[in-house]
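so i finally got all the pieces together for this one. its two components total, 381 residues if u count the protein bits. some of the lines might not be protein, just check the labels. i wanna see the whole assembly predicted at once instead of chain by chain like last time, that was a mess tbh
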Amino acid sequence: MTTTIVLSIVLGFAFGFVLNRIGATNPENIINMLRLKDMHLFKSILFGVGLSIVLLFAGLEFGLIDAGHLSVKAASIGVLIGGAILGVGFAFGFCPGTSVAAAGTGRKDAWFFIVGGLVGAFAYMMTYGAVKATGLLDAVYGGKVTFAETSSKFASLIPDVPGLLVAFIIGAVLMIIAWKMPMKIGK
Amino acid sequence: MKPYFSWFAGGIVLAVMFVAAVALVKPIGVSTQFVIADAIVWDAVDDSVITTSKESKSGYTSSNAYLAKSGGKYAKNAENPINYSFIFVLSMIAGAFVSSRLKGGDRPIGADKFAPKVWRDRFGESPVKRYIAAFIAGFLVLYGARFAGGCTSGHMMSGLMQTSLSGFLFTIGAFATAVPTAILLFNKKSKGDA
């Protein structure tokens, strides 16, 4: 086995393990987060995102992380629309990653979600040409862009400010929001 | 919510996980592998779907435009399932299983195995109803994820980690529908069936 395959086994295992430990494999927690009754998981995600931004850009700055490993996806109106379609299904308690992990813990509804997902992905493969023809997938604002400058590989929306500074500000704001957010919103 | 990890500890572990993945290999993403799984099955049924090609960057192409895009990288991965991203997702099943069986993990018991309590309180004890809803939800989630070019892992976590514009667009789009849908679905008292 190559090193890459060993890493895929180890990191995939760790990711499934982590999703279970933070409660994300339980659709009850996803649903209660989305209906704003229990923000535990949302606070974890938001804090995790904020901290990951700081760690990633610090790692890039100090040469600990190879910028060649980055992979920025293109921005388009389709990203917004696709996200909105996904959101409707997300309200039932699973997203692609958590459904796979939840299936591993013995949740039968997760397996039905996965089968539905395989059919949904196939439906997209079949309609991709028509979707593309609408122009909704065309890149906007330069496509593969970031707010904080990463490297010469991807353009930055704020090129005149050092990437590390922008990243630290965004990361800090997200972590503070996560910290201050109440466990429950509304009644 | 049961106290597995505190929200704070959970956030730290998530951050370390996503940064470790990009430091060692590349950003985490899951939804593409649903396409790869489909393509593996489709090509097994009809082996004219994926073919080798000298013109294509990956060396493979497909009769399907989606599998053929970006130099045929999806076609190549489906033809070679022992690749990083596909094994990563399969390995998640094992990781979640082991965690769920250890102390402090989330292990479904009884009726939770087919539907979470919040669902049963609202829509009753029928597993079939939940399975049909989960199937439809899965369809929407993966159709949407491929439309968007990524899912919660790829766009929201890995995308926002890199401060990418697409990550912010995806997150806005997803929560804009997920929150109202969840409130509409679940914030009513059940009418006698629970």
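The mean pLDDT of chain A is 96.
Residues 108-133 of chain A form the longest helix (26 residues).
anyway lmk what u think
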